[in-house]
Specification:
Helix content is 20%, strand content 40%. The chain contains three helices and eight strands. A hairpin with a 4-residue loop joins strand 5 and strand 6.
């Protein structure tokens, strides 16, 4: 018989094996690799799930969803919080100064794909400039379990829709907090024309 290699003289390899045993070794290597991949999948599950959800957002359709309750901690006469989600841009929620918040609550949790923001009193340029407009804001999104996500927004000071991508699941409330405004001055208030919410359909 040929001499054993040195590594087979150490236990538990200190024995001769029959021909074909290499298949067993290869099988164990493959099994180890598969188990390693499964373990990595569990460790990376949150990141993997996020990537899958983002892809579904991009490939799927988005539908508009309306809140069931809209409130604000400040508003000027004639421009209540509900005007921020009434479906038209020539009415608006008005607040005396930056720092105010409008909150939108929804009947059922949903996947929030995007929020479309219309600043100003109207989409018409002259009316748009008649009141102050938010240029910095916080978008605070609350999930059903209480988890909150805050997105700092820098908004263009011009009429028209501005889309903010979100990609957050199980959303039940969205708050828009005005942090800074352009066009402020005596006798002027801050106008937010419309908030539109898009869910994955």
């Amino acid at each position: 018989m040929p001499k054993l290699p040195w590594w087979r003289t150490v236990w538990p390899f200190r024995r001769r094996v029959r021909g074909g045993s290499g298949r067993l070794v290869r099988g164990l290597v493959v099994l180890g690799a598969v188990l390693g991949l499964v373990a990595a999948g569990f460790l990376l599950f949150p990141a993997g799930r996020t990537a899958v959800e983002d892809i579904r957002d991009k490939l799927g359709d988005a539908a508009e969803i309306s809140p069931v309750k809209v409130t604000a901690d400040a508003q000027v006469p004639g421009h209540p919080a509900g005007d921020a989600t009434d479906g038209v841009t020539n009415t608006y929620w008005g607040t005396p100064a930056p720092g105010a918040t409008v909150s939108c609550r929804f009947a059922q949790p949903f996947r929030l794909v995007a929020v479309v923001v219309h600043t100003g009193a109207s989409k018409e340029p002259a009316e748009f400039r008649a009141q102050a407009r938010p240029v910095r804001a916080d978008l605070v999104v609350r999930e059903e379990d209480g988890t909150r996500h805050t997105k700092e927004l820098t908004l263009n000071d011009k009429p028209g829709p501005q889309t903010v991508r979100t990609g957050i699941s199980d959303v039940v409330e969205v708050r828009f907090v005005v942090r800074a405004a352009a066009g402020t001055g005596k006798g002027r208030h801050v106008a937010l024309g419309e908030l539109e919410f898009r869910k994955r359909s």
